[in-house]
Every structure is written in C-alpha cells, then in structure tokens.
Design brief:
The chain is mostly beta strands. It has one domain. Helices cover about 0% and strands about 40% of the residues. A hairpin with a 5-residue loop joins strand 8 and strand 9. The mean pLDDT is about 95.
Length: about 100
C-alpha cells in the first residue's frame, strides 16, 4: 500500500482491509525498497504490546506487525483499519499504531 503523509498528525497513513483469514501482516518499506524495511523485533507485533522498531535494513530478523492477532483487534473479514506510521520531526521512525474504521470512513 502506498502511504500518505498526514502533516497534522506527523505520520504516514494507509488503510488495510482484513481478509478471509482474519489477520493482516505488514512491514514498512522506505522508498518501496525491501532493503530499507522498518519492522518490529517480534513476530505478530501490535501497538497493544511493547516492542522495538528495527531497520531500516533488509529485515534479517523478519518481524511483522499483525492486525487481528491481539484480542483488542476485530478479526472480521472486511474490517478496515487505518495504520499510522509515526515519525519524528526529522522523520526518524517512532512507532506504528492502528484504529478500526467505522463503515463510511
């Protein structure tokens, strides 16, 4: 997914739709380059649990964020989430969060 800059929130954003498996996993790619991946230090990480950001690099550890694994996430096919990639004023990675969108958002 292409990310859009939200200047008011100082973050990049994109929308993810949950598929039939009830979960969606992802990493962040700087400049759409797999050699510049930003990812968590744990598999199936979420904003609901503490983790560290890794990269940008070619992600040798292989962690991913996963929507739908934590009990606070809705695991329903077709559910849509807005994912926010938070960055500092110098555009250094700070974290990832997501929120469930209501129909029509």
């Amino acid at each position: 997914h292409e990310m859009e800059w939200n200047a008011a929130k100082s973050c990049f954003e994109f929308v993810v739709e949950v598929g039939s498996g009830g979960c969606e996993s992802f990493k962040i790619l700087a400049d759409a380059d797999w050699d510049k991946a930003i990812y968590p230090d744990a598999q199936d990480a979420s904003p609901h649990e503490q983790h560290k950001l890794m990269g940008p690099d070619d992600c040798p550890q292989g962690g991913e964020w996963t929507i739908g694994r934590h009990h606070r996430d809705v695991r329903k096919e077709g559910s849509r989430y807005k994912v926010s990639f938070l960055v500092s004023s110098g555009r250094d990675p700070l974290g990832v969060k997501w929120q469930l969108l209501v129909p029509g958002d």
